[in-house]
Write a structure and sequence with these properties.
The chain is globular and about 55 Å long. It has one domain: Pnp Oxidase, Chain A, CATH 2.30.110.10. It is built from 3 helices and 11 strands, in the order βαββββαββαββββ. With 170 residues, the protein is an alpha+beta fold. This is Pyridoxamine 5'-phosphate oxidase.
């Protein structure tokens, strides 16, 4: 699958005079290499629910998994709109990326097997899954549902030279 390469648009209101828009390839690399992400979903009553989790970038989207009865899975079932954030917990250095999109459940076992392989490659033996019956099954027991979150809009926030880049996907 060919990934979109939308142009970055710099928002001068939130950027230093010498800042430049980042390339999507740079943000995608940060999303791919991040160890931890923060997923924001919408509770049925409209309140946000934010939780840290691991994930993998594959085929132009972030993939995450969770227990089917966990709050984030229930939230996505009711309202699939979400945001994923990763970056650094610093003020004057690093780069943060926010992806807004819609979480779609992955049930195809072949696609789930690719996601499982990506988890294993990135996180090692502790995150070994087998794909079957539309779920990821952990070697230690238990099953997880997987979601694909393709970006609709993404933002990058540079800190050493303050910058605010926006990417819009079609």
């Amino acid at each position: 699958m060919t990934e979109q390469e939308p142009p970055g648009v710099l928002d001068a209101r939130y950027s230093a005079p010498d800042a430049t828009a980042a390339d999507w390839a740079q943000a995608r690399e940060r999303l791919s290499q991040a160890e931890l992400y923060w997923l924001t979903t919408v509770r049925p009553d409209g309140r946000p629910h934010v939780t840290p989790l691991i994930g993998v970038w594959l085929d132009g989207a972030l993939h995450v998994c969770t227990g089917a009865h966990e709050q984030k899975a229930r939230n996505i079932a009711a309202d699939p709109r979400c945001a994923v954030t990763t970056g650094t917990n610093t003020l004057n250095s690093g780069y943060d990326v926010v992806v807004e999109g819609v979480a779609r459940r992955v049930v195809d076992d072949a696609e789930l097997a690719r996601i499982a392989a990506a988890y294993h490659d990135k996180y090692g033996e502790d995150w070994s899954f087998t794909a079957r019956d539309g779920q990821l099954h952990h070697a230690g027991g238990g099953a997880a549902v997987a979601f694909r979150i393709a970006p609709e809009t993404a933002y990058g926030f540079g800190k050493s030279t303050p910058s605010h880049t926006r990417w819009t996907f079609t």
